[in-house]
Design brief:
Blueprint lengths: L1 H18 L8 H24 L4 H12 L16 H7 L2 H11 L9 H24 L20 H32 L2 H6 L3 H21 L5 H38 L6 H12 L5 E6 L4 E3 L15 E7 L5 E8 L6 H77 L3 H28 L2 H6 L1 H10 L5 E6 L6 H22 L4 E8 L2 E8 L11 H12 L3 E5 L6 E8 L17 E3 L30
Parallel strand pairs: 5-6
Antiparallel strand pairs: 1-2, 1-4, 3-4, 5-10, 6-7, 7-9, 8-9
Helix pairs in contact: 1-2, 1-3, 2-3, 2-10, 3-5, 4-6, 5-6, 5-7, 6-7, 7-9, 9-10, 10-11, 10-12, 12-13, 12-17, 15-16, 16-17
Length: about 625
């Protein structure tokens, strides 16, 4: 369609220029500008069709191209009596189309009663002028040696002149009314209104001014002014450009809704939402009222209820509800934004999505907190069960076996005093077997829950644990007082599992363990000089430790390049309990075992305050 009307327009322009006698031809530059005007309208029609809210403006621009009939075209059709009167009756239709195009800016349709009155008046005047030309126009009314008008019913040149000039006066008056209304609306309008209609008033006023000057010259019979007509053509060509610029601006405002969604993706913070929305819409008067379920009404971010007069004074209210119909908020905005419903729909969707994100985020955080607390209770219950089993073994079965051992020792001494060596030897063997069983029972109880951990904390339990590792371990413990019981047991079993993995898989010749408090965190660093290549996903032991550490809100990191050893770093909340400090020790108690080699990262962990000879492990008695 665009290509067709462009071809028709160029044909009229070129053929008319060639058909005009050379002495009467207008300036080539002016003819070129005259031909460019419909091309600009056609190009803007394509853009408006692609990005506009509806097809009406694009269709008006295409109709304008058809009505842009050059005066030089009449010599081409001067022999067609049936055609030239029709073209003479509609050759000013482009002005009517241009006026209606301005009226439908930017929404694409006539808005209020004023717009409808102006459009109706222009159309009625055009119809009256068309039939007047058909009935009264003669060959002298067009710039050509045309054949007589076959539609002419009477010769009334005075009536024809009155209607012709009156039609032009009405057209100029309507154009001035449209321009003044648009300018007044722009001056009195809010920032959004000025932003949407930022170019059209300038273009329209330029065109109307030159149009009025041309009408005066036409009515007085003065010769045309080339400069004035050129300015008029440029002003006319700027109208569709301004229209497309306004549509593109509105489209750009809708694109900024994506920024609004990115800003508020974490949830609907009420103060941030109102500020971001005002910046997106470029409307400082925007206010957001949130639905208060408790009070059953809308309130702003400060809790003040909505005023019943909020919708007046040039503002409109946009209700936002959830998909289920539950109210979410009311957005008070400048009334001019109702012309851009796509923008408002995007704002509604962004607010709805933001509220849903905030609600889901709160639910997820609440669920995760419940899971963490549940996991922590499970770990605490497991530790309590471990302590109870260890206590039962120590106070029950172990004491009974010790009593049996004492009885066997008395019986063996009695048999040896009676010179019954055979019985004494059998009793000695039974005592040895019983001692092995007691040793295994003590080790079993220690693995379930070490008693040293309950008695002295990490400062006593970790050195004893390192002493039972077949790989030499350099250990330094510097907790500032006793820690929370759950934190201490988690740290102990994390070190125990790490040392067990070192002994089984690392092929290391030395290991280092550091435990210290950094800020509000307990930091454990376990390193070896083995083959590396370890993974937290291998084996159920480390997975259990990871679960334990997660339960207390800690984290674990593993650095294990192949051939460069393995470093395990554990961080967890310390929850210091200064009142539980070990007797005879300060807050900076430091215990070292198997000293000699420095740790790989001495700066990352405290240096030992004292050391013992290689091969000797500190014990509770040493402390």
């Amino acid at each position: 369609m665009i290509a067709t009307v462009v071809a028709i327009s160029l044909f009229m322009e070129v053929s008319g220029y060639l058909a005009t006698p050379e002495a009467l031809r207008p300036e080539l530059s002016w003819t070129t500008v005259h031909a460019i005007v419909p091309l600009v309208f056609a190009a803007c029609a394509g853009v408006a069709w692609a990005i506009g809210p509806n097809p009406v403006p694009a269709r008006l621009m295409i109709v304008f191209v058809l009505f842009w009939i050059p005066q030089a075209f009449y010599p081409v059709i001067e022999s067609l009596g049936w055609l030239w009167p029709i073209l003479r009756g509609v050759d000013l239709g482009w002005a009517v189309v241009a006026g209606i195009l301005v009226l439908v800016y930017p929404r694409g349709g006539l808005g209020d009663r004023f717009d409808r009155v102006i459009a109706t008046t222009a159309l009625v005047a055009t119809v009256v002028n068309f039939f007047t030309v058909l009935a009264l126009a003669g060959p002298d009314s067009v710039p050509c040696e045309c054949v007589p008008n076959p539609y002419r019913v009477a010769e009334a040149p005075a009536v024809f002149a009155i209607v012709d000039i009156g039609y032009r006066i009405v057209g100029v008056a309507l154009a001035i009314a449209i321009a003044l209304r648009l300018l007044l609306r722009w001056v009195r309008g809010s920032v959004p209104a000025r932003t949407v209609a930022f170019l059209m008033p300038v273009a329209l006023l330029s065109w109307v001014s030159t149009l009025a000057a041309q009408m005066v010259r036409y009515a007085t019979g003065a010769p045309p002014n080339l400069a004035l007509e050129t300015v008029s053509l440029i002003a006319m060509a700027s109208v569709p450009v301004c229209f497309v610029a306004g549509i593109a601006h509105a489209r750009n405002m809708r694109a900024r809704v994506a920024d609004l969604m990115r800003i508020t993706r974490e949830g609907a913070d009420r103060g941030l939402w109102a500020e971001s929305l005002a910046r997106t819409l470029r409307d400082d008067s925007v206010r957001v009222f949130w639905w208060d379920e408790e009070r059953g009404r809308y309130v702003d971010a400060a809790g003040h209820p909505i005023d019943s007069a909020e919708e007046g004074r040039g503002h409109s209210i946009l209700p936002v509800a959830s998909p289920s119909g539950l109210p979410i908020a009311l957005i008070r905005h400048d009334r001019v934004l109702t012309d851009n419903m796509r923008l408002l729909d995007g704002v509604s969707s962004a607010l709805r999505l933001s509220v849903d994100n905030g609600r889901l985020r709160s639910e997820i955080e609440r669920t995760l907190e419940q899971v963490r607390q549940s996991r922590q209770r499970i770990v605490e219950a497991g530790d309590e069960a471990r302590r109870r089993i260890e206590r039962d073994l120590h106070d029950g079965a172990q004491q009974h076996l010790v009593a049996v051992g004492m009885q066997l020792r008395i019986a063996a001494n009695t048999a040896r005093a009676s010179d019954d060596d055979a019985l004494a030897n059998e009793l000695e063997e039974s005592i040895a077997t019983l001692n092995e069983g007691l040793k295994e029972l003590r080790e079993l109880a220690h693995g379930i829950h070490p008693s040293l951990l309950s008695q002295g904390g990490l400062a006593l339990a970790l050195p004893e644990l390192a002493g039972r590792c077949p790989v030499p371990v350099d250990i330094a413990v510097q907790p500032e007082g006793r820690l929370a019981e759950l934190v201490e047991s988690t740290a102990y079993f994390a070190v125990a599992e790490a040392l067990a993995n070192i002994a089984k898989h690392s092929q290391a010749t030395r290991a280092w363990v550091r435990a210290y408090v950094e800020g509000d965190e307990l930091v454990l660093m376990i390193r070896d000089n083995g083959v590396g290549g370890a993974s937290l996903d291998k084996g159920t032991g480390m997975l259990g430790i990871v679960d334990r550490i997660d339960a207390v809100g800690g984290s674990i990191e593993l650095d294990s390049p192949r051939g460069a050893g393995t470093t395990v770093t554990v961080r967890m909340p310390a929850h210091l309990e200064a009142s539980d400090e070990l007797p005879g020790t300060g807050a900076g108690l430091l215990v070292a075992a198997e000293s000699g080699a420095e740790p790989p990262d001495a700066a990352a962990a405290p240096d030992p305050a004292k050391s013992v000879a290689p091969g000797v492990v500190s014990s509770p008695a040493d402390l």
